[in-house]
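To whoever picks this up:

The parser on our side crashed when reading a file containing two proteins. I've narrowed it down to the boundary between the first structure block and the second sequence. Both blocks are reproduced below exactly, byte for byte. First block:
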Amino acid sequence: QVQLVESGGGLVQPGGSLRLSCVASGFSFMRYPMMWYRQAPGKERELVAYISSTSRSKEYADSVKGRFTISRDNLQNTVYLQMNMLKPEDTAVYYCQKPAAGADAVAWGKGTLVTVSS
């Protein structure tokens, strides 16, 4: 059974940093690209960052470029999102996603809440 468990969210002041983690199980983690999404109150879920299976390719939403860094550890089955220079508009529930591939369905974690506020 595929499982994605996010952690690391919390309350942080503007300009602060947080590091999110997503531990994966139930599939061959090292074979899949992974994504971080977020959903702010009253808004649609949006893609924040993407990382290829080998970490060679990374992409970011324009709103987080230069502030967020996605990384992964294929030995630990974990994908990370380092978030620096946080802004109030970064407040959202952050979700880890394993994409669909062939017969494998997309999978989501339950999310971790990030609140940026003074």
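<<boundary where parser fails>>
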Amino acid sequence: QVQLVESGGGLVQPGGSLRLSCAASGINFGSYVVYWYRQAPGKQREWVATSTSSNTTNYADSVKGRFTISRDNADNKVHLQMNSLKPDDTAVYFCNARLAFSTTNYWGQGTQVTVSS
């Protein structure tokens, strides 16, 4: 059974940092494109960052220069380092893994990030 489990969310002051992690079981992240999405209250889910199996990364303009996505292949995890956090970053953050050229698609349950003073 495949599971993606996000962790690392919490409450942080504006300007602070958090590191989210997505741990996979039942699949090898090395073969998947991994995405981070977020969904704020009353808003649609939006794409945040991508890490391909060849370690190419892409970021939404709203987080470029502040967030970094990285892979830990030894532990089968993908991380999202979030710096210079803003109240607008408040959302539930989700990890998504997709197999290229396939409909195979897995989601985690999400982790809450709240940026507030």
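After patching the parser it read the second block fine. The mean pLDDT is 96. DSSP finds no helices and eleven strands in the chain.
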